[in-house]
Design a protein that fits this description.
Blueprint (H helix, E strand, L loop, with lengths): L1 H27 L3 E7 L5 E12 L2 E7 L5 H8 L4 H7 L5 H10 L7 E2 L1 E5 L2 E9 L2 E7 L12 E6 L3 E3 L9 E5 L9 E3 L2 E5 L1 E3 L5 E9 L11 E7 L3 E12 L2 E2 L3 E4 L8 E5 L10 E10 L10 E10 L7 E2 L5 E3 L3 E3 L3 E6 L1 E9 L11 E6 L4 E4 L5 E5 L8 E2 L5 E7 L2 E9 L11 E9 L9 H4 E8 L2 E4 L6 E8 L11 H30 L1
Parallel strand pairs: 1-9, 13-25, 26-36
Antiparallel strand pairs: 1-6, 2-3, 2-4, 2-7, 5-6, 7-8, 10-12, 10-14, 11-12, 14-20, 15-19, 15-21, 16-17, 16-20, 18-19, 21-24, 21-25, 22-23, 26-31, 27-30, 27-32, 28-29, 32-33, 33-34, 34-35
């Protein structure tokens, strides 16, 4: 019996030792750590809002944590204890209560993150956390430019890993390329050829598009987006062309400011995105005209855009009784996104075919594009438009140096037709086929360096190719005229002469035959 009692006592002692060891092991696991997988550049803070007794993963006997002024929260919520406030929290009202907690945080209870950068962002850790419920947020004034404010609640009864939702959004600016192929083109109002680089004729309408997505606006009462767009002098914005769609449906709650408050060409404000589905595409389509102030060749005609957007649900703007914004609240902005539009110049010199050093004055031409339309130009040779009838086309006349030019042409195929030759020279029988070829990088990765977007310029005439000058945007060719009489053409007077002469010969033959017959009859 005594032996049995000793054995039982030993077993109980071992059991108690195991329990104590387990308790010590459990105790050794605290305090806990929150690991946050986030974007680079943040500084996160953790404030204990509720503490209590931990049993397993259940927190009971709720009390105020060391990171919040509980008495102030009770006064604000008209509740008598931390337990009563905790009992009120639901997923529907959590944002409201987080705002109250944030107004009453205690700096003495803050725990601050440390971060380690990696390929996919930064891993942040906040250590030394006792069991409880914590408010985790960005430190005041620390949110990186272009990022949204982060705030969430976490239950800490063990080590926790979080990948917080952010309200960041993206922004892209694109231009439609009307001739050349486009790599991975985005879809816009004019089709799926929107990219970062394009070329056009002066006077053409150039379609542009801005792209973004609806962010997660859950934590906001109001949410605004403001597009800022800057166009150089060679591009003239058409405000009447603006159209905004969200998820393919037209959105009309917009405000247009010209020029923008920061000196940009225009600002377009989407006044309220609260209630729209996160992830839906936002698209702004609009047009500009390439003007006679356009830069020929490099550096092209740049256009850039950035997006300003709400980034702090604690200060998300206020509106009046009519829904008009009194202020936009806290906002941040994306980096500028760049696109560029190029245009080119055709130089033509008229020369004597036998003596190319001799320049010919007074030759007249018309220029026709691939669509069959004829160019009109001003006194400086700058393109002013395109017309259907040849009679309405501008006469491109060679000067004393045999020279004329057409300024502001798109990459593409043209026909140069001589309508009047210099005095004493033959008129060219056929139009001259000309192809202007610009090598542009028509993809989605333009970073704002024009020489990386326009890499070569060539002209092809009669099967021969010559290099142009990307810096000036000029391609050149010479046209020969030959001295001498024009050979008769079918249907011309030369044919008539042959007909007359032939008729006379036939008539003479008939007369001769008749005469011979009469002579024979008389004999």
């Amino acid at each position: 019996m005594t032996t049995m009692k000793k054995l039982v006592s030993l077993v109980l002692a071992v059991l108690m030792l195991c329990i104590s060891a387990a308790a010590l092991a459990t105790e050794a696991e605290t305090p806990y750590t929150i690991t946050i997988n986030g974007d680079d550049g943040h500084t996160y803070e953790a404030y204990q809002i509720f503490g209590g007794d931990l049993s397993g993963d259940v927190l009971s006997n709720i009390v105020w944590g060391n990171g919040v002024n509980g008495e102030a929260v009770q006064t604000k919520t008209e509740k008598a204890s931390a337990q009563e406030v905790a009992d009120l929290l639901t997923s529907d009202n959590l944002d409201e209560y987080m705002a109250i907690f944030e107004e009453n945080l205690l700096a003495s209870g803050v725990k601050t993150s440390t971060g380690v950068a990696g390929e996919d962002g930064t891993t942040y850790t906040i250590e030394g956390l006792e069991p409880g419920y914590y408010l985790i947020k960005d430190a005041d004034g620390s949110v990186p430019v272009g990022h949204a404010y982060t705030k969430f609640m976490a239950k800490v009864v063990k080590n926790v890993t979080a990948s917080p939702k952010t309200d960041n959004t993206t922004h892209e600016k694109k231009v439609y390329e009307n001739v050349k192929p486009v790599t991975n083109g985005k879809t816009g109002a004019a089709g799926n050829k929107y990219n970062d680089v394009a070329d056009y004729c002066i006077g053409d309408t150039v379609p542009f598009a801005l792209y973004s997505t609806v962010p997660d606006t859950t934590h906001y009462d109001h949410y605004v987006m403001i597009f800022h767009d800057v166009m150089e002098a060679g591009l003239e914005f058409d405000p009447a062309s603006i159209k905004v769609t969200i998820g393919g449906n037209e959105y009309t709650n917009i405000t247009l400011v010209q020029p923008g408050t920061d000196g940009c060409t225009f600002e377009l404000k989407l006044n309220e995105l609260k209630g729209y589905t996160a992830g839906e595409e936002i698209r702004v389509d609009f047009n500009a005209t390439l003007t006679d102030e356009a830069v020929i060749g490099l550096d092209g005609n740049p256009n850039k855009s950035k997006l300003e957007f709400s980034n702090n649900p604690n200060n998300d703007g206020t509106v009046d009784e009519n829904g008009e914004y009194i202020d936009d609240g806290d906002t941040t902005e994306t980096p500028w996104d760049h696109v560029v539009v190029f245009t080119y110049e055709l130089d033509v010199t008229k020369v004597d075919g036998a003596d190319t050093a001799k320049k010919l004055q007074g030759a007249e031409f018309v220029l026709q594009n691939a669509a069959g339309k004829y160019v009109t130009v001003d006194a400086s040779g700058i393109v002013t438009g395109w017309v259907e009838a040849k009679e309405q086309a501008s006469k491109l006349t060679s000067d004393a140096d045999g020279f004329f030019k057409v300024v502001g042409l798109d990459d593409g195929e043209y026909k140069l037709e001589e309508t009047k030759a210099p005095e004493g020279y033959n008129l060219l029988a056929d139009p001259i086929a000309i192809k202007v070829s610009a090598t542009t990088i028509n993809d989605q990765n333009y970073t704002g360096t024009p020489s990386a977007a326009l890499t070569a310029l060539n002209i092809e005439v009669g099967g021969s190719t010559a290099a142009g000058d990307t810096a000036t945007g000029v391609v050149s060719t010479t046209v020969n005229n030959n001295v001498g009489a024009t050979l008769p053409e079918t249907g011309g007077i030369g044919t008539t002469i042959f007909y007359v002469v032939g008729g006379v010969l036939v008539l003479a033959a008939i007369v001769l035959l008749v005469t011979k017959r009469r002579v024979g009859e008389e004999n």
